[in-house]
Amino acid sequence: MNKAILRKVKGQVSIAILALVVLITAAIFAITPAFSRPTDPTSDADLLDGYRHVEVASVSDAMEKIAGQRTYLSHNMRPIFTSKFAGFAITVKLKKEENNDPHALDGMLAAIDQGGPNSVYVMVIEDGANIAGMGGLMGTAMQARDFSGAVIDGGVRDTAYLKKIGFPVFATGTVPSTSVGHYRFAGANIPVTCDGVQVNAGDIVAADSDGVVIVPRARASEVLSMAQDMDFKEHSMYAYIEKLKSIEEAVKKFGRL
């Protein structure tokens, strides 16, 4: 092969290689954005991280300002031990009904086994002040499945064991009774009224030593943003009050009480 032909072949190969490089580069740039976008501030992980670090009192205040409604549970809803958690609601409802049906509560258990990390078990027991809606066995299952916690509009039992395994539960009381034979499963992941507050599946449930608040999923991002701002102002006020020995001056400066 003479030199002219060789140069021509080399040129064609170079062009082909260049074209291939261009195509590969274009493909890479076309694919990369799908994997390199900044974290979505409204993603589940970011929301829960925010709610786990903000105070429930601030969340409650933010909900009242934004939605004009009370979404905190009453003073009757208390923790079995001091705890703080946030997660997405899995709702369960039990209806009062005397029965001998061994499957009457199957749906209650299935709801646990269908939950997972970041779930909060929100159970409403009809006239359940003196009925334990959950105990050590259900708590162990939730713990094993990495639930964030449980909120029971009714009683809880086996509290010593729940404390031992460190599974956080808020309930309206502690009682040794059982729901078996006295209640029937009435639905899961349906709208329920828990201690006077409506809860839908997927709503944010945030709890700490001050109590429990429910945030509708659709408003979770804006509520969190306002609650974080409230937290920042309040925490900034402590030193200001100590320095000036005046709460009036602090409120005037920060606009927060």
Gist?
The chain has 257 residues and is an alpha/beta fold. The chain folds into two domains: 3-36; 44-218, Glucose Oxidase, domain 1 (3-Layer(bba) Sandwich).
Write the layout of secondary structure elements.
Elements: H1 3-31, H2 33-36, H3 44-53, H4 56-67, E1 78-79, E2 85-96, H5 106-113, E3 119-125, E4 132-134, H6 136-144, E5 149-156, H7 159-165, E6 169-174, E7 183-188, E8 192-194, E9 197-199, E10 204-208, E11 211-215, H8 220-244, H9 247-254
Parallel strand pairs: 2-3, 3-5, 4-5, 5-6
Antiparallel strand pairs: 1-6, 2-7, 2-10, 8-9, 10-11
Descriptive report:
The chain is of the alpha/beta class and 257 residues long. The protein folds into two domains: 3-36; 44-218, Ribonuclease E inhibitor RraA/RraA-like (Glucose Oxidase, domain 1), CATH 3.50.30.40. Helices cover 44% and strands 23% of the residues. The chain is built from nine helices and eleven strands. The protein has helices at residues 3-31, 33-36, 44-53, 56-67, 106-113, 136-144, 159-165, 220-244, 247-254, and strands spanning 78-79, 85-96, 119-125, 132-134, 149-156, 169-174, 183-188, 192-194, 197-199, 204-208, 211-215. The strands form two sheets. Strands 1, 2, 3, 4, 5, 6, 7, 10 and 11 form a nine-stranded mixed beta sheet that branches. A two-stranded antiparallel sheet has the order 8-9. Strand 5, helix 7 and strand 6 (169-174) form a beta-alpha-beta unit. Helix 4 packs across helix 8 (220-244), helix 6 (136-144) packs parallel to helix 7 and helix 8 (220-244) packs antiparallel against helix 9 (247-254). The model is unreliable at 21-41 (pLDDT under 50).
